[in-house]
């Protein structure tokens, strides 16, 4: 028998309200690390209670099921599921792959204790309300996750930085590179992005001299010859590229930075490539928020279309 107090208690209700406000207001009005993680925090608390209410037999395992689902949801393995769901569902769902989000799994003891001590929650639950009146809005809130802002724009420099913008094309890496070069476009390795990505490897090569703090001299010592050799090898094997300038209609995009990766989720991954777009330079001083947002969407669409039709 379902225990309605699992979803009518104040902890659950407050979590649902915070989830709704954060996904649809706070993330956009007060963009920060905190608002980026807040939905995961309240979600990992309310989800096991919702599972236990819907499936009472899962009472002793709902926390573990919720944890496993959260890991799947935050991994790249859920990408095809999300794409399929968004095709058939009138309410699209979104998420960003960020493995630091998995830190909220440490909060699972909270819903575990709440479920285990449900009698205590009964004292802090709404009494004169039908559980369905809370269940339906809760499911809708969970489904209608916020549209992730996939880019940031700097009006001073015209720099457009993308986040989690990726798509697949039916071309191998070699075919795509050849077609880009056949268009007489200047294609080079994106050394700035490659070197930034290699920061950890570089830092692990050096040695920190603590005595230099008092005696003076170089605090961090590294062999320049070894460093150069490592970085050249990193650049050589990297699949991070940059098109210096590309004309699309009456727009010019500069320094289009992207990576080419194998499309591992395809049945024939060798015939497909995954394109991950990192950044580009567009017009400066697009200070009108609404116009700026629209322009970003247009550029994102144009970039995607251009790659697929090289």
Q: Would you spell out the secondary-structure blueprint of this structure?
A:
Blueprint: H1 5-8, H2 10-29, H3 33-54, H4 62-73, H5 79-88, H6 109-116, H7 118-121, H8 132-143, E1 151-154, E2 159-169, H9 173-182, E3 187-189, H10 191-197, H11 199-205, E4 207-208, H12 212-215, E5 220-221, H13 224-237, E6 240-248, E7 251-262, E8 273-281, H14 289-308
Helix pairs in contact: 2-3, 2-8, 3-4, 3-6
Structure description:
Strands 1-2-8-7-6-3 form a 6-stranded antiparallel sheet, with helices on both faces. The chain has a two-stranded antiparallel sheet with strand order 4-5. It is α+β, with helices and mostly antiparallel strands and 310 residues long. A hairpin with a 2-residue loop joins strand 6 and strand 7. It starts with a helix and ends with a helix. It has 14 helices and 8 strands. The model has no long low-confidence stretch (mean pLDDT 81). It folds into 2 domains: 5-143, no CATH class; 151-197 and 238-308, Alpha-D-Glucose-1,6-Bisphosphate, Chain A, domain 4. It is globular, with a radius of gyration of 25 Å. It has helices at 5-8, 10-29, 33-54, 62-73, 79-88, 109-116, 118-121, 132-143, 173-182, 191-197, 199-205, 212-215, 224-237, 289-308; strands at 151-154, 159-169, 187-189, 207-208, 220-221, 240-248, 251-262, 273-281. Helix 2 runs antiparallel to helix 3 (33-54) and helix 3 (33-54) crosses helix 4 (62-73). Helices cover 50% and strands 17% of the residues.
């Amino acid at each position: 028998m379902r225990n309605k107090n699992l979803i009518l208690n104040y902890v659950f209700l407050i979590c649902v309200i915070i989830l709704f406000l954060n996904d649809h207001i706070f993330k956009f009005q007060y963009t920060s690390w905190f608002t980026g993680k807040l939905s995961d925090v309240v979600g990992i608390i309310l989800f096991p209670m919702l599972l236990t209410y819907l499936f009472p037999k899962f009472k002793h395992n709902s926390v573990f099921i919720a944890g496993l689902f959260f890991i799947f949801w935050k991994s790249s393995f859920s990408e095809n599921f999300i794409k399929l769901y968004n095709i058939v569902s009138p309410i699209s769902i979104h998420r960003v792959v960020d493995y630091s989000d998995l830190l909220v799994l440490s909060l699972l003891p909270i819903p575990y204790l709440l479920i285990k001590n449900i009698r205590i929650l009964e004292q802090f639950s709404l009494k004169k309300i039908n559980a369905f009146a809370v269940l339906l809005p809760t499911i809708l809130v969970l489904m209608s996750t916020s549209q992730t802002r996939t880019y940031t724009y700097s009006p001073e420099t015209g720099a457009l930085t993308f986040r989690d913008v990726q798509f697949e094309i039916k071309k191998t890496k070699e075919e795509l590179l050849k077609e880009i070069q056949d268009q007489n476009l200047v294609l080079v390795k994106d050394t700035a992005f490659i070197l930034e990505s290699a920061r950890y490897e570089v830092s692990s090569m050096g040695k920190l001299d603590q005595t230099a703090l008092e005696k003076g001299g170089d605090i961090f010592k590294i062999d320049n010859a070894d460093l150069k050799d490592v970085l050249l090898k990193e650049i050589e094997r990297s699949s991070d590229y940059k098109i210096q300038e590309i004309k699309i209609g009456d727009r010019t995009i500069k320094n289009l930075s992207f990576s080419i990766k194998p499309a591992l989720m395809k049945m024939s991954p060798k015939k497909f490539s995954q394109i991950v777009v990192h950044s580009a330079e567009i017009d400066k001083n697009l200070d009108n928020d609404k116009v700026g947002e629209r322009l970003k969407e247009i550029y994102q669409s144009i970039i995607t279309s251009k790659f697929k039709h090289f």
